[in-house]
Amino acid sequence: MTQVFAFRGITYNKDIVKDYSKILTQPYDKIDDEMQDIYYRKHKYNHVRITKGKSFKGDSETNNKYTRAAGYLNEWLKKGILKQDNKSTIYAYYQEYEAEGEKKVRKGFIALGKLVELGKGGVHPHERTLLGPKIDRLNMMRQVGGSTGQVFMLYSDPKLIVNKITDSFAKRKPDIVSKDEYNVVHKAWKIQNPVAIKSIAKVLSAKDVFIADGHHRYETALNYRNEMAAKKVKSYEPESYNNRMMTFVNMDDVKGLTVLPTHRLIFGLKNFSFINFQKKLIKYFKIKEYPYFTPNDEKIVRQDFIHSLKHMGMRKHCIGLVAKGAKRYTLLVLRDEKIMQQVVKEKHSDDWKKLDVTVLHSLILETLLGISRESVAKEENVHYIRGEDAAIDEVRASKYQMVFLLNPTKVEEVRKIAGRSERMPQKSTDFFPKLLSGVVISKVNYGKN
């Protein structure tokens, strides 16, 4: 059972901000220092000041990026830069984008979702989380008293009932339009029709949901709820701390879904010998090498290697490997799936053991390289990067000793694993495009209605 509610969301006042493309941002965890600077320069009301503001020398407990975020939110509400809808609303949220030469539209809707403990009540996570981001987001929620970004939820609706409802509203001019730095066009429509809202809620009430992106945000919302409840703080439904803003996307609308792989950059291995490492790999993997000799050769060979990784990955467990200083690309193909039964000692399903990301983490990183799960969680020897070319170029030019390239986790794999309440290693999925922050903001109602 999944409970969703229309709510009085907060959106930017177009009459003042004019261009949403200068206002809305990528999710907080995708904003690096360079992107943060760009957002600050784009517009004085850019949402980055709320969702991931800058820290400054001299910050204190009473004056820091979290208190400033709350200050901006409250000030902009008073000045009318941000406006809260006076009617309960569900927001149709569509994203038009291109992936591998194909134009796609991912269709979803933004509503409040009832918070339940993970693995219970129909909400299923699929990735492990890290402590640092949860502390950061909890500090933000304590000050802002709400949510500035989305939790991305998947649900199953083979008949596309909800999509047909939102499509009927998407025929009109959108209330919000923004084009991001990845050329993705984001559009949102306010749905305030009680019949449509009730119909959407009814469909979701019979569904389980799966967290596609935003595990840290969801767990933070649970922590915030428990903290407020323990203090016996009163809030008012539906905009209470018992609910959290989420974007719901139908996993059966496969034409609109794209999952990208996240690759693993390896560094800081002491006394590491690539030759000795290769000898260990041969026991478990068939190894195919793609050597090159000139810069022109490298371009052709790289394309062939990446194509082979994707093509062979459709049928077999296949992982790419690029080592610093080596003038060759390497393809690792698992010899036998039964190997994973021996490697993974914990109680896990066969589906979990057969994931490419499990093969990489459990067999290669932990067993062969000796990188503990704790080290991976703390990113002591592993960094994450999107894009095959970016990953390869990073190894060529920097401190990294090698990179492992993965194929994307399939949506059906997410459904199977999450449905059993199992957690994949962190960064197992990367749904593209990201849900922008600031499209809608939710604020807990602590006052009287």
Query: For the report, how would you describe the main beta sheet?
Result: 9 strands, mixed
Overall shape: globular
Count all strands and give the number: 21
Helix share, percent: 25-40%
Query: What is the count of structural domains?
Result: 2
Give the terminus-to-terminus CA distance: 27 Å
Number of helical elements: 16
How big a fraction of the residues is strand? 15-25%
Mean pLDDT: 93
Integer-rounded radius of gyration: 23 Å
Supply the helix-strand structural class: alpha+beta
Q: pLDDT below 50 for ≥5 consecutive residues: which ranges?
A: none
Describe it:
With 449 residues, the protein is of the alpha+beta class. 36% of the residues lie in helices and 23% in strands. It is built from 16 helices and 21 strands. The chain has helices spanning 14-17, 33-42, 48-51, 65-79, 131-144, 161-169, 194-205, 215-230, 274-284, 295-313, 339-343, 350-353, 356-368, 373-377, 388-397, 411-419, and strands spanning 4-5, 10-12, 82-84, 90-99, 102-114, 123-124, 146-147, 152-155, 176-179, 185-191, 209-213, 243-250, 258-260, 262-266, 285-291, 318-323, 328-334, 382-386, 402-405, 430-432, 442-443. Strands 1, 4, 5, 6, 8, 9, 10, 11 and 12 form a 9-stranded mixed beta sheet that branches. A 6-stranded antiparallel beta sheet has the order 15-17-16-19-14-18, with helices on both faces. The mean pLDDT is 93.
List strands and helices in order, with pairings.
Elements lengths: L3 E2 L4 E3 L1 H4 L15 H10 L5 H4 L13 H15 L2 E3 L5 E10 L2 E13 L8 E2 L6 H14 L1 E2 L4 E4 L5 H9 L6 E4 L5 E7 L2 H12 L3 E5 L1 H16 L12 E8 L7 E3 L1 E5 L7 H11 E7 L3 H19 L4 E6 L4 E7 L4 H5 L6 H4 L2 H13 L4 H5 L4 E5 L1 H10 L4 E4 L5 H9 L10 E3 L9 E2 L6
Parallel strand pairs: 6-11, 8-12
Antiparallel strand pairs: 1-5, 2-3, 4-5, 4-10, 5-12, 7-21, 8-11, 9-10, 13-20, 14-18, 14-19, 15-17, 16-17, 16-19
